[in-house]
Structures are given as C-alpha cells and as structure tokens.
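User: Reviewer 2 asked us to show a designed sequence for the structure in our supplementary figure. I'm pasting the structure tokens here. Could you produce the per-position amino acids so we can include them in the response letter?
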C-alpha cells in the first residue's frame, strides 16, 4: 500500500504542484486548504505524513501542529512544516512545537520529495521500536526520556533528537551537514559549528561523572554513535 500524505496548504498552485509530484512518486495524496478542516479530517483518519503550511485560514499550521502533538493518535505523526523564507524565530518555534522537519519556501520539489521519503523511513522504526538501547544507555522515544545506568538524564530537545538520530544508525558516520539536515532540517541560517556545540552538550549530559563517551568524533568527517558501545 502506498504511503498516504495529507497536504494542508491554501495556495492552490502549490498544492497542485505538490500533489502532482507526490503522486508521480507513488504516494496517495489528499489535500485540504484550511487548518480547521484539516483538524477535523485528521480526527477521522491518520495519514502516514502531513505537509503542513504555516499560514492557513481557519487555524494556523503551527497551532494545528501543537494540537496534533497533544493527542495520542497523532503524537508521532510525521509532519513537515512549510513557511516563508527568513522567519528564523518561526523556524525554531516550528521545531519546538513538534514539527519533524521544516522547509522554507520557495523550495525545490526534489528537496521536498527527499525530505518526505527520509521522514517516512525515519518514522517507520519508531512504530516498531519505542526504546533504543545500547549498553547502559536507553532512549525512550514515546516518553522522550534518556537514561544511563538506570539514572535519568536531562537532555534539551535538540540533544535528544541528535542522540536519537545517531543511535538509530550505530557506527555510521554523519557529517555535520547531514546532521543539520536530519536533526534540524537543512537551513542556510544554521552554522555547522552549531552541531559541535550540541554534540558537546550531549556528551556532557551523557557523562556527568566521566563515564565512557559513546559518541565518536571522526576527524574531518563528523560524528557517530560508537557501534562497539555496550557490546
Ligand atoms: Ca499559506
């Protein structure tokens, strides 16, 4: 069965363009132009992914996203947010409200398709495996909690997503640029050094008493969750 995608967008030409390309890529597509109508529809059926515009009549995309995250049936629903260029603080707000990814208009269709497919891939294992674990580190995706040796670790949302991203693919080395794409959603306004800052914070939180560092720095390349950790 093809993955079902709901487009919530009030600019009709953009909706048509997205529908055409998503259907050509093999997805089943529904579209709605109003936020409030989308909310009603999402109460009846849950698609596999939502492409959600920020500015919508009826109910804003950001408010709809917040409400969806607050309900069990849609708490894990993959959401890609669309917005106008340059709204950096909005962008941050979008991720804080729970969107999985964020695309700034105007965007290229191949870029959107790549994000859709990446997010669907990323979302699938989440349904199967709520807890990722390696050695004494456990990451609970549903409760958004991390513990080490049974002791809960307090992580910021970005550090949580970063650890989740790395732990999903132990041993794989991610360049800073890939991490920006996967964890933040690619955006020209974020400097790659931001990745180093957050990896630093994550490391500090994971090893408060000088425990073994499970994250590897690969010089000149990027970061990986050590595949040997806990083995
Ligand atoms: Ca709009």
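Assistant: Here is a per-position design you can include in the supplement:
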């Amino acid at each position: 069965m093809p993955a079902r995608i709901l487009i919530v967008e009030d600019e009709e030409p953009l909706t048509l363009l997205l529908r055409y390309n998503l259907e050509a890529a093999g997805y089943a597509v529904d579209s709605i132009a109003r936020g409030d109508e989308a909310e009603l529809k999402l109460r009846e059926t849950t698609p596999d992914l939502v492409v959600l515009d920020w500015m919508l009549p009826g109910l804003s995309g950001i408010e709809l996203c917040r409400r969806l995250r607050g309900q069990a049936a849609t708490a894990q629903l993959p959401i890609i947010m669309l917005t106008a260029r340059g709204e950096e603080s909005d962008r941050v707000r979008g991720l804080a409200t729970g969107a999985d990814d964020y695309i700034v208009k105007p965007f290229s269709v191949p870029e959107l398709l790549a994000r859709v497919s990446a997010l669907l891939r990323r979302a699938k294992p989440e349904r199967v495996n709520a807890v990722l674990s390696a050695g004494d580190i456990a990451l609970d995706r549903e409760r958004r909690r991390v513990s080490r040796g049974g002791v809960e670790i307090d992580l910021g949302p970005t550090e949580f997503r970063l650890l989740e991203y790395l732990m999903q693919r132990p041993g794989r080395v991610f360049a800073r640029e890939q991490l920006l794409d996967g964890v933040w959603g690619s955006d020209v306004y974020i400097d790659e050094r931001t990745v180093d800052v957050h990896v630093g914070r994550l490391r500090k939180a994971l090893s408060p008493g000088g425990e073994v560092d499970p994250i590897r720095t690969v010089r000149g390349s990027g970061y990986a969750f050590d595949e040997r950790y806990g083995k």
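For the response letter, you might also mention the following. The radius of gyration is 18 Å. The chain has two domains: 4-127, 131-229.
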